[in-house]
Structure formats: structure tokens, C-alpha cells
Amino acid sequence: MMREPWDEAETPEEQAARRDAYRRLADAARRVGFSLESLSHMLRQVTHNEVETRRFLSEQVYGVPDAQLDSYLRARMPGGDAPK
Fold first, then answer.
1. 58 with 64: CB under 8 angstroms?
2. Do 64 and 72 meet the contact criterion of CB atoms below 8 Å apart?
């Protein structure tokens, strides 16, 4: 059984969508010959890279705390204040 890393604030629909996405990802990994352990390692590396990229951008490029980086970038980008 897969550990379910859901956010407790997620709705049942969001949890179901996430569960389905994880299942499809695991199935795709098996089809191309990756073990779940290999997939997990690659996803951890992607997460680590994202954290390091955000740290670099917030500290070295924009000089804002990481918690404010998204809002800061939305405010600076053309059309960034438009609802999605």
C-alpha cells in the first residue's frame, strides 16, 4: 500500500485526483522499467533542485524571503496580477 502524502486541508476530490495521479505515475514508471524506488529518488532530486532554485532566486537574485517570492514575481511580471 502506498503512503498517502495528502495535505489534510485537501478535499476528498483533491485527494482522489492526487491518488489517481500517483497511480498513473507509478504505472508509467513500471512500463518504462523504473522501480518505484528509482522514481522516488528522481522525484526527490527534482524537489531538491526546486528548493535550491527558489533559494538562489530569493537570496541572490531578488533579495526577498522565499515565502514572498511567488507574490513578488507575480507583481513584477506583465499580467501577473491577472486571475488564473
1. yes
2. yes
pLDDT tens-digit map of 17-66: 988 998 998 899 999 998 888 988 988 999 999 999 999 999 999 999 99
Give the Cα separation of 15 and 19 in Å (integer): 6
Q: How far apart are CA 16 and CA 19, in angstroms?
A: 5
Structure-block grid coordinates of residue 32: 518504462
Grid coordinates representing 10 are: 485537501
First to last CA, the chain: 35
b/e 14-48 (16+ beta carbons within 10 angstroms → b): eeeeeeeeeeeeeeebeeeeeeeeebeeeeeeeee
pTM score, whole prediction: 0.58
